[in-house]
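Extended Data, panel c. Modelled sequence:
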Amino acid sequence: MKHLPQHFKSIILQKTGASSLIEKETIQELWSGYGKIIRVGLENAPVQNVVVKYVKWPKHKLHPRGWNSDIGHQRKVKSYQVETTWYDQYSEKSAARLPECLAIETHDKEVLMVLEDLDEAGFPLRKRTVEWTEIAACLSWLAKFHASYLGQKPKGLWKTGTYWHLETRPQELAILADHQLKEAAPLIAQQLNDAVYKTFVHGDAKLANFCFSKNGKVAGVDFQYVGGGCGMKDVAYFIGSCLNEKDCERLEPKILDTYFTFLQKELPEKNSALEKEWRSLYRVAWADFHRFLKGWSPGHWKLNSYSERVTAAVINNL
């Protein structure tokens, strides 16, 4: 298994001080054939392993759901530029735990990110199902993350964070069969964009992007869609990634109370105006993602009666 070109191997050796390296395993393929995430073992270095995100523009664009457009390609290319900017300029300011970045290199149509191996750092667990304590840990992570960047301008990042926001998804909107939602979509997006209180959102805060320690702590990965916005986008999207519709509904007050308790603790002083505004935007953020999903993949498992009811209520309130 040899994936990394020689010039990138040299950079890894130089930045880690290792005498040699070995490509141990492919952790995952990147979406649509844009590269790989590889665990690399090091000899005679302070750490045993690093995780390398190696991006290479594909010759043939392959998308699992058939979206092979230039818009999609440009969005992905920009997402890797955003991620390198994020690690280079912003990541150290995060109070939420994430991998330390050891090196970034761009070479022609290739990108290299050398990151701390979170498994080795004490976050070896990935979860497909979660208990409330783990949901709370992730909400705490999001609160720390959002508090770290409150009021900052996302220079070099996505102006509007998340991969599904309306401006980057014209094709999905064009084929959306729900005409009422199609008509309301710009107003829903505008409500989120007009929020007085903005931060940086992670932009893809699904359960699969959290790494857990054995004692319940959490670290986050994957910052391709980090950018400006209301923190509720991350919260609604995260909850949708790990709870069924009954629990989404049943636990909604508890989810919001828990998140805002954590967020207020992270802020220099209590901010009731922020909390009031963001609470009112939780369901708006939910409806915004629902709009994307309905156009992108109308048969998706996340499209459920709770999402439909929330979205209908949001449209009625416009």
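The mean pLDDT is 94. This feature is highlighted in the accompanying rendering.
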